[in-house]
Design goal:
It is built from 12 helices and 13 strands. By secondary structure, it is α/β, with parallel strands linked by helices. Among the domains are: 23-119, OB fold (Dihydrolipoamide Acetyltransferase, E2P) (Beta Barrel); 139-279, Rossmann fold (3-Layer(aba) Sandwich); 371-410, no CATH class. A hairpin with a 2-residue loop joins strand 1 and strand 2 (58-64). Helix 4 (165-177) packs parallel to helix 8 (270-277) and helix 5 (195-207) packs parallel to helix 6.
Length: 421
Amino acid sequence: MPVESPSPDTMPKTARETSPENPWPLRVLSEKLKAHIENSPVSWVEGQLLEANIRNGHGYLTLRDVDADFSFSVTVWASVMRRLETKPEVGSRVVAQVKPSLYAKTGRLSLNATDVRPVGLGELLARLERLRQALGAEGLFAVEHKKRLPVLPRTIGLITGRDSDAEKDVVQNARLRWPAVAFRIINTAVQGRDAAAQVMAALAELDADPAVEVIVIARGGGALEDLLPFSHEELVRAVFAAHTPVVSAIGHEADRPILDDVADLRASTPTDAAKRIVPDLQEEFGGLAQARDRLDRAINHQLERERQLVAALRARPVLAQPQTMISTRLEDLVRWRERSTGLLRHRIERARDEIGHLAVQVRALSPQQTLDRGYSVTQLPDGSIVRDAAQLGVGDPVQIRVAAGRFRAEVTGIDTEPVRP
């Protein structure tokens, strides 16, 4: 038997009070959900239109998130449609003022839009410029954070669309310039909502490969909306955090996504990227030939200078006639020897004269000279000289020295009075 519906008096007031014995009728849950959802405030949301059907003046839209796989049904009543300046078109990017709504009979949740506005080019550019300024203020674009590219990378990582012209431009031009260069290519989406996530995954994979020395992110030109993934904030921060140098080659010269500002090198086109990451083999050969020619000229010039210097040295008299130096020194030596001999002879003569004078003086002071003048020296037997008569006594023997010889005597008398001159 079917369970009877509870009376209003016994019906639970809240979901917590429900039980298997006392449940809510489904309509009660739908009505309560409807009341709760429709109490939600009005909000502005942004997305891309996947569907846009107009029936009886009403708009039935499907709005998808621009970055993730989320979508919602949006209803635009005819009264609102009449106020819109432009009709919604599939693929366009819009902002809408919406309020959640639940159709209680089917439980279908949708959004009711009270205003729908297309996001124009000017608005997109303004948003990109605000993001660019905010990231620049954080220092993500500072020159001191730019990494130097290798002079000759052996392996280049390339992130680009599958079978794209950008891939052909980079690979062909790089190999024309340096045939030995190798590539590790990862093909990703380069536009649409999955592009930024796929490019970040490829960047992380190449950055972790130690063989990859530089990474190129390349895409051909396109509309501003097509290039938006390369201004995605998460991708910009991933490029800044990469350890491998990153080259941005997005679009044409006029295109400038934020990726260009954070990359270590910005190339105007994919072809320009190939020219700037590898040297040209023929130019290098030409540079080597020029350097070799300059080196040869420098060596020959130096050799010629040294030859002239040696010739100048050999022309000097000291090398042309080296015996001149010896003969000149010989003459000086003879002259100095004669001078020293004369000086020495003169010095000897003067010394001889001085010795003669001294000899005369010595002879004049000699005791023998005194004896020769008639004086004598009286000595005691012990050899001491008698200087005072008081030293003697009568009968003392003495020895007397005269100019020629000596004799002995005996004292017979003593006179102690001094002799008058």
